[in-house]
Amino acid sequence: MENMSFVVLVATEQHIHYAQQICDEMEASAKARGTGIARRSPDYVKQKMLEGKAVIACTSSGEWAGFCYIETWSHGKYVANSGLIVAPPFRKYGLATTIKENIFKLSRSKYPDAKIFGLTTGLAVMKINSDLGYEPVTYSELTNDEAFWKGCQSCVNFEILKSKERKNCLCTAMLYDPAQKKMEEQKKKDNEKMTRNKRLFERWTSFKQYLLLRKSKMEKIKNLITF
After folding, report:
1. Could you give the CA distance from residue 108 to residue 134 in angstroms, rounded to a whole number?
2. pLDDT tens-digit map of 67-78
3. What does the domain layout of the chain look like in residue ranges?
4. Which pLDDT tens digit goes with each residue over 133-156?
5. Distance, CA of 131 to CA of 55 (rounded, Å)
6. CATH code of the domain made up of 6-176
């Protein structure tokens, strides 16, 4: 498998036969880690594929390799890239990163103004999210949509979440805020502009001082010659 190649694309109707396999692997992976995820049915996964809200990875021979899908909350104000899973034989090829990058781009394309968030216990996913621009946040900065939190009921850690009054749990909350990123980018541009202007001013000042010094020297020479 050293030269393993994958096709990563937006899932469509032709991929719905993978739904059961995807759900089974999601559940098996959660049990193996000793953590929990909101359980999804094959019909739910199929619907995401039909809506163009999922990314799937397959080998060049057509074997399922990985998956992730988009969920929206609070009338599209919040988006979650959920259910990231890579089949066990393909977990050392950087495929999770590629899938996350693709689902992130798809989310930004479909919901450019939405805040994209995630809840995870996986360090690898946290690293990927961080590289994409997510930042750790408190649960209070996530959606208030009850439908989202209801989905946590199938998680083995739900009782912890409930006992903490939904303020925290074992999962780390991470958020990508496009408005905040836009402000940061504008601030960066403004700072770069100020730096450029400062350098131009310093160069102009230096040149002006050079001209004044040169003029002064020329006047001294002229006075000496005249004398």
Report:
1. 13
2. 999 999 999 999
3. 6-176, 181-227
4. 999 999 999 998 988 888 888 777
5. 19
6. 3.40.630.30
